[in-house]
Amino acid sequence: MSKDDKPDSSPLIGVVGVCASGKSTLIARLKERGYRGKHIAQEHSYVKDMWQRITHPDVLIFLDASYPVTLQRRRLDWAEADWQEQQRRLAHARAHADFYLNTDGLNPEQVLEEVIRFIKTLNG
Hints:
Layout: E1 12-17, H1 23-32, E2 36-39, H2 50-54, E3 59-64, H3 67-73, H4 80-89, H5 91-96, E4 99-102, H6 108-122
Parallel strand pairs: 1-2, 1-3, 3-4
Helix pairs in contact: 1-6
């Protein structure tokens, strides 16, 4: 990691989103760059504000992906109704997210770049 890649401060970055939207990959890549990332499994909770109960992130990132793309990325055994249910469970987190990104059509590096670009805007 070059000196320019390292963030000036290390906010806790919470990441939420539907299954196969890229959460785990993003968190791993953020950590490689010196950021603190936390996966928040809100998509599996019936408690609408579980993301706030699990952790108190300084920044909340919402990653989204369409149902067809989730099936292309992973062998998920789910129907579109299951995806829609995750969208419903994530509504509160989506409404409170600092940054929303639909990852359809983006590779992991592009997702990382978009998120880091946003985080850098927070540091002024």
